[in-house]
Design brief:
single chain, mainly alpha, 2 domains, 20 helices, globular
Length: 467
């Protein structure tokens, strides 16, 4: 059975004329690449705030790297697996899913996400993956729809169709096949999934992509799995590379941190590894790269570790090798390149689903998957939770919350740009807060700070600069 059907290529609105020289999935790729939501990723934080330096990754460059890794995985599977050699995974579709995977992230990263979710807990919640689907399927402005087509009559659905992508492309962005509850308690955790407003769309996607197998399994397509793995690989390598460059972590420091009992308990809970395995994996990743004495022209057999002089000399060399990974760009990038190559080579097919090939499953081989998870969580604990970044995140959370409160008050919609004012005027009252949430989620970090300044600062932007 082929990996793609005519139903996969269906859209909410027909596209005429079809072009014989490019596939519907290539058209989707082009629509995403030219969209404002994609361009705005350059102004959203990946690991370090963009205003701090131009030399670290942002959400846009991260997405480009995820797309490259995802395409490499798909190329390898098409080359090495008998089924995918006969029925190749579409590379345009994989790249599009990877480029789109972070579109829904609000300003200020995960703290901005949590702040918006807190504001929306009684109104359907907020979550980055759900927002990605909403942007692609509803918010982006590819097809002109007058605001008066979005009627305040609650029996009529919002008629916007976003980029009007194929059902298979939209399916490739749905990582969590779960509808977020319309109301949650104040202390309830963030829920990953899709919004109630897109529930009917998700059902149409399932009917098109899964066909008669619609109810047999959760929807996570082979392209979505590739994107998800590529994202984890990028997080565990390139975020680590930026953290090394910034001096937030060192190889020796990570080995030492993995030995800390309190941090080890956190990592054990997140990775399901025991304490000995955590230290072993970290040692395996780093020691071979910082204890290669031959690279210094030294034969290990000639060292007398029992002597103070040789022990001090050995410690000095290992310390220097560790520092080289922080301060020597060529050494650092070669290290992450080796890791990415090793992980791409380690992707394997778990099962070809004969009844629904779209749901065939892949994974990273044993220890490689555990190492990716370990590096990802260790970098998070050592960098994202560091006092320097937590201070920035706290401020971002406060800014997002203040903007939402100002806009959702009675008359707050008058602070919005004209297109959002027109939209809210034609939406049912129950959907006003969702539209305000959409507006804030689309902000870059810089624009959010500027908008907040207009509301709160004594030295706000001139009124002649457009909102």
């Amino acid at each position: 059975m082929s990996l793609y059907t005519d139903a996969d290529r269906g859209r909410e609105q027909p596209v005429l004329p079809e072009t014989p020289y490019r596939s519907p999935f290539r058209r989707d790729y082009a629509r995403l690449l030219h969209s404002p939501a994609f361009r705005r990723l350059q102004g959203k934080t990946q690991l370090f705030p963009g205003v701090e330096s131009d030399f670290f990754r942002n959400r846009l460059t991260h997405s480009l790297e995820v797309a490259q890794i995802a395409k490499s995985i798909a190329l390898r599977l098409n080359h090495s697996n008998d089924y995918f050699t006969q029925y190749p995974i579409d590379l345009d579709l994989v790249e599009t899913a990877a480029l789109a995977h972070d579109l829904g992230h609000p300003p200020f990263g995960h703290n901005g996400e949590r702040a918006l979710d807190d504001c929306m807990k009684e109104k359907g919640g907020f979550e980055g993956n759900a927002q990605t689907l909403r942007i692609l399927a509803r918010l982006e402005k590819k097809i002109f729809i007058s605001p008066d087509r979005v009627q305040p009559n609650p029996t009529r659905e919002d008629s916007r169709t976003g980029l009007n992508l194929t059902y298979r492309t939209l399916a490739a962005t749905i990582k969590y096949d779960k509808c977020i509850p319309p109301k949650r308690g104040h202390d309830d955790a963030l829920v990953k999934g899709y919004y109630r407003s897109e529930e009917k769309l998700v059902n149409r996607i399932k009917r098109s992509v899964l066909g008669p197998n619609m109810n047999c399994e959760s929807l996570k397509t082979i392209e979505c799995q590739i994107m998800d793995l590529a994202d984890d690989i990028a997080y565990s390598t390139y975020d680590l590379e930026d953290a090394l460059k910034a001096g937030f972590v060192t190889p020796i420091g990570m080995i030492s941190a993995a030995s800390d009992n309190k941090l080890a308990q956190i990592l054990m809970q997140k990775t399901k590894l025991n304490e000995d395995d955590i230290l072993k994996h970290i040692m395996d990743i780093w020691l071979e790269r910082i204890s290669d004495l031959k690279s210094f022209g030294i034969e290990p057999d000639n060292l007398n570790i029992g002597s103070r002089e040789d022990l001090a000399f050995l410690v000095t060399l290992i310390d220097r090798a560790s520092r080289n990974l922080n301060y020597e760009g060529a050494i650092r990038t070669n290290f992450t390149s080796e890791l990415v190559g090793e992980y791409v080579e380690g992707v394997e097919v778990v099962k070809i689903n004969a009844e629904a090939p779209v749901l065939s499953t892949i994974t990273l081989k044993g220890d490689l998957l555990r190492r990716v998870e370990l590096l990802k969580h260790l970098t998070y604990e050592l960098v994202i939770k560091s006092p320097s970044l937590k201070t920035v995140e706290y401020r971002g959370s406060d800014i997002v919350t203040e903007i939402f409160c100002a806009l959702s008050k009675r008359g707050g919609e008058l602070l919005l740009p004209d297109d959002y004012r027109d939209l809210i005027a034609n939406l049912p009252g129950s959907e006003h807060d969702r539209a305000i949430c959409d507006f804030i989620a689309g902000m870059t970090d810089r624009y959010a700070v500027e908008f907040y300044g207009r509301l709160k600062s004594e030295n706000a932007q001139t009124i002649f600069k457009p909102l």
